[in-house]
What we know:
The structure holds 2 protein chains of 2 kinds.
Chain A: H1 3-8, H2 25-59, H3 64-98, H4 100-109, H5 111-133, H6 142-169, H7 173-176, H8 182-186, H9 191-213, H10 221-224, H11 230-258, H12 267-292, H13 303-356, H14 370-378, H15 394-401, H16 405-413, H17 433-444
Helix pairs in contact in A: 2-3, 2-6, 2-9, 2-13, 3-4, 3-5, 4-6, 5-6, 6-9, 9-11, 11-12, 12-13, 14-17, 16-17
Chain B: H1 13-33, H2 35-49, H3 52-87, H4 89-98, H5 100-122, H6 124-127, H7 131-163, H8 168-171, H9 174-178, H10 183-209, H11 215-253, H12 260-290, H13 301-321, E1 325-327, E2 331-332, H14 341-347, H15 366-377, H16 390-398, H17 407-420, H18 431-446, H19 454-457, H20 465-499
Antiparallel strand pairs in B: 1-2
Helix pairs in contact in B: 1-3, 1-10, 1-13, 2-3, 2-7, 3-4, 3-5, 5-7, 7-10, 10-11, 10-13, 11-12, 12-13, 15-18, 17-18
Amino acid sequence: MKTLLFILAQVPVPKDLDLPLPMPEWFLVGVLVVSFLLHIIFVDLMVGGVLLTLWFEWKGLRNKGYDALAHEIAKTVTVNKSLAVVLGVAPLLAINTLYTIYFYSANALTGLAWIMIIPLVTVAFLLTYAHKYSWEKLAQQKELHLAIIGVSALIFLFIPFIFLTNVNLMLFPEKWGTVKGFLEALMLPNVLPRYLFFIVGTLAVTGLFLFWYFGRQSYEFEEKLPDLNRYQVRKMFYGLAFGALAVQVALVGPILISTLPSKGISPTLVVTLLAGVALVAPALYWMWQDMTSPNPVHLDRHFGKVASLMLVTVLVMGSGRHIYRANAIEPHRELMAEKTAAYRELIAQHAQAMQNNPSGELLADAGGSAGEAVFQKNCSACHAQDVKVVGPPVTEMVSIYKNDPEGLKKWIKAPGKKRSDAPQMPGFAQLSDDELQALSEYILHIN
Amino acid sequence: MDFPIFHLDFLNNRVLIAIIAILHVLINHALAVGFIPMVTFMEWLGFKTQDERWDKLAYKIMFVGFVITTTIGAMTGVGIWLSSSLINPYSIGSLIRVFFFAWFTEWIVFVTEVVLILIYFLTWKKSNASFRSKGKHILLGVGLSVASWFTMAIIVGILGFMMDTGNWLTERSLVHGFTNPIYLPQLAFRTPLAMVMAGAMGLFLTIVFTKKGEEIRYKALRFLGGWMLFWMPFSLAASLWYYKVIPTLMIGNMAVAVGTQDFQDWYNLLTKFIFGALGVSFIVALASRWKPQQVPAYAYVVPVIVMLGFAGIFERIREFIRKPYVIGNYMYSNGIRVDEYPLLQKEGVLKFATYVKHREVTEANKVEAGKDVFMVACSRCHTTSGINSIVSVFDRMYGGKGQPFPQGAMKNYIKNMHNARYYMPPFPGNEKELDALVSYIAQLQVYPESIEGAQTAGTPVQTTPEEIKQLSERILARKESERNDKQLAEKSNTEANLKQ
């Protein structure tokens, strides 16, 4: 029983929402894994695109050709970022549905950083537009132009920390009672290795994408980038992808796996991750062959296979992520489901008891006469016995209407405006004649 | 109760959602839903008259819409989710479970819309190459207009549901959630409103992008004035329809007519806005239609401001109407469900809360426990020292600046406040907790304190090892009995087989 672990620590076991999942769990998991894959690919292209734009524009200060290349990459970023955002909606929806308690708890604990995503990303987006559309205008103020994309790049480098901190924190309910704020949650084990894995992956995906983008038949390379050689540029991006993948497999991946807290690790997970690594090996081999071939035509020879392998790899890794997540919180989810069921039973028992012994409003003090009950329910919020609350005290009512119960009833039904310093009382047209009668008797006989 | 409590004690939690949501609504009405058909129409005018000045102006106007919708518009849309999940996770979590398919469909429509807007804007100049490609481009604009409208049509179903759940409470299905009584009036109201807002925006941008004396400026002003005049009657008629639907909804939500005053204030304000905003915009539109040369440029700021104000006040009233519920008759604004109330009012909210310091109120911990009660029951709408602070509310009520609050009267008031102020949920706790809450508020009056939310202070946890052990035992017992049932079933199966 894994729950023994929980007994040792101060682990919150909250109740789940009272509504069933709208779809079978496997369906939601499928939506989550597949739509997240789509989202992350475009996020990679957005972040990688901004980083490479910055890099080549900086190199372009000495070599005009690179400046034009940076401009071409910048044009892809503004498109990819829109797709990244809109493709992020589905995984957000799925994770909200499947892991409501876990995700929202992590969100609340990192709340300020979590909500800062909105203004920060908005600013980063506006900066990428400002950068793209001011290329010619700011040709003489390169420092300023570089600063615009520099700030945007910094924001894009920071945002993944917020997301990774959240998806990491949601796996460790035993930490929810101890973290104070975003920075402490950021320092929990495994956030930094995850971040490193993301950044290196970004470079690999963007390298592959640009290799394809500049290689398309319809892309007029010679016209748009006259100072550069298509083969050289593409080889450079292929090299970037190759290098990043090699680093990922040889260094970052092992670091990531060896720092995973053990609670989510299972044989299935190990097999899945090894399968992912195994798929990368042939891809690396083919890339190396194509890049080192003396014949430039061979550069594309295996690209189709490489790209499909990478897609499968990312899908396998995404499944691995999910397996780890499911393993990590499985025992806690069982506890939570049990607690939710127990609470539901309590509510039902209680409702049953209420039906057997109806006592009306629980809090309203129903002792005493019918008139008192009406008074408590409708009047006591603003009127007290002998002090002015919002309205005048009962003693004042008695002094005015002692011998005129009809006048009092009339007033209650349709009050006028008496005092300039108090709000006018609303009319109580909804009281029945019997209730009014009882109420006026209660008010006037109270002394 | 079941989530660590995020809390903004100065700004007030609801204000955070309001800022993001209202910004989002204004952008998507004025720069997407109404804006795209208007721009497409202008593009078509250029195509029909073979006048490229129309095309150039339409492109410039579209540029503004494109940049703002794909940055601030898109991110505030996500922001509504992020802020709701911080501030009222119970409500957004429940809505997502009810409307999963609506949102999933919405996502498909969103993706379509984004892809179309990218293609539409980024291929605009290329499409001018030939007669045929231009025709195709205009059709693309029509498709994009439809997609934009659909994103709104789906979301309005969810918004309407929050105000009036219709038959959902008994049927609990998505379709019943969608066909709530407010859906059609609200959609009929938003559609022409978006068109009029877009017209106001278009007039303003035309002034920005053209020069005084240019012929195209007056052509465009005439056209846009006409565009607004065309949609205004629909907007007015739908406003009045919506206006008529509101009171029936309200009365359904009102325990007592006491609240009508607050409501009446809003209602009167809405009347003023319907006639004021539409009236002012009508005059500007009319002048643009007939005498565009004589309208001073600065006059075009006015319709933009009043139409944005109109949409803003409409959203405010929509939010006001749903109170005290966040999901009509199912869940209160404090995130506590109606069916939990009887249990909690008897046993207390702290007893079942996961993230509080104390589960029992004692004489010694009264004030601290009162703070817990405040966080669970009041903090979604009230602060201790910021906007709508609990101290200022009681100060206003008891008119005693500096006089100690009458604790007995306060308790009495809180017990019955949902009758006096129908937009407040009933107090969810029991007598002891009410006592603790009042002590805490009384102390706040003397020693003001600002509460830190879980996002900076972390959260107390109240799940004891004992409780986990009990739950584990329950799980084991349940699994055991499931196994036994299975074995019994197998046994009877084999016996039946043997008999055969």
